[in-house]
Design goal:
329 residues; elongated; alpha/beta; 46% helix; ArsR-like_HTH; 4-stranded mixed beta sheet; 3 domains; 14 helices
Length: 329
């Protein structure tokens, strides 16, 4: 990880965790990828949809937010201002009523008397910029709304998964598997960020926000006094790109599947004793490549380990993996 910000969570069993399917967070990721040069991995079809729907001036309008190494999105205009509630339609209404003086005051507080050149057109004509910015957000959401609607079953399933893990005191299994770009080390979550700051959760609520955009998405806000929210790729996102159909929801009585997912639960159960990867793939009923993908994620969470023995690679549960299976079985 080239640069990261560390969020010290404290005792994981004491976390107050919730899930929010927030439209604005998805919009923020989409425009960051399509117009801000931020590689969130949005598939080409969706990126084209967003680019074509937005007004021709969208790139110029959004440039102040994403120009340079760090994104600066004033609180009064960010699509995530209402987190964890609200929707894009309501935010666009609020932007229409927003006083330009509020925006100028935030820019003054952020930059002092030295507003960067990229923000000068906004400072010079704030009302016009607010109108143009609201138009971009509204146009993008009108085009992407049907995709969000199609993602609703996946969003509901993710809320069920996280909720099941928290109730069973398995928040670490969820937090360790949010994204390939995040890393959980003990009680600290490392998030990709060139600013490389350090924050304390300090008893605030932790809101997990599944994002409907791309597998590389990473958006978060760690400085609110009431909560911290972290946006991460919605599990199963590839199914919306024309991938294989979603598996049915895990059985309500299968706690392990609710927490780690059905396929990974089968993998963990298949290695009560160490076994060759080829044998595990046959037991689980997936291809070797698919098994390797799931094993990487389980290794990332400290639940399994792979080691070579002669010409075979063998898979084994770690002590942590054993403890999780025992707890949830």
């Amino acid at each position: 990880m080239r640069g990261h910000t560390a969020l010290h969570l404290g005792a994981l069993d004491d976390l107050r965790v919730s899930v929010a399917g927030h439209q604005g967070a998805t919009v923020l990721s989409l425009i960051a990828d399509a117009f801000g040069g931020r590689g969130h991995g949005v598939p080409a079809r969706w990126r084209t949809l967003v680019a074509r729907a937005a007004p021709g001036s969208a790139g110029e309008v959004l440039r102040p937010l994403f120009d340079g190494g760090c994104s600066v999105v004033p609180d009064c205009v960010t699509p995530t201002a209402s987190m964890p509630g609200g929707d894009v339609a309501t935010q666009c209404e609020q932007l229409a009523d927003l006083s330009p003086e509020v925006l100028l005051a935030e820019l003054e507080a952020e930059f002092g008397g030295a507003v960067p050149a990229r923000w000068r057109p906004v400072v010079d004509r704030p009302r016009q910029w607010l109108r143009a910015y609201s138009g971009v957000i509204q146009a993008v959401w009108e085009a992407f709304g049907p995709v969000w609607a199609a993602a609703r079953p996946l969003l509901d399933r993710e809320a069920e998964r996280v909720g099941g893990a928290v109730v069973r005191n398995c928040a670490d299994a969820v937090l360790g598997d949010l994204s390939r770009r995040f890393r959980l080390t003990g009680g600290t979550l490392h998030l990709p960020d060139p600013r490389q700051d350090t924050y304390e959760l300090g008893g605030r609520r932790l809101v997990l926000v599944p994002i409907v955009s791309g597998p590389g998405t990473s958006v978060f806000a760690l400085d609110r006094p009431d909560l911290v929210w972290i946006g991460y790729p919605l599990p199963g996102l590839g199914q919306l790109w024309g991938g294989p159909p979603a598996a049915g929801p895990a059985r309500a009585d299968d706690a392990l599947s609710l927490v780690v997912g059905e396929v990974r639960a089968r993998v963990l159960r298949a290695v009560r004793a160490p076994a060759p990867m080829s044998e595990v793939a046959a037991r689980v009923g997936c291809t070797p490549a698919n098994l390797t993908h799931h094993c990487r994620r389980l290794e990332h969470g400290g639940l399994v380990v792979r080691h070579r023995q002669g010409q075979y690679v063998r898979l084994a549960r770690t002590e942590r993996g054993d403890a999780l299976v025992d707890l949830l079985s």
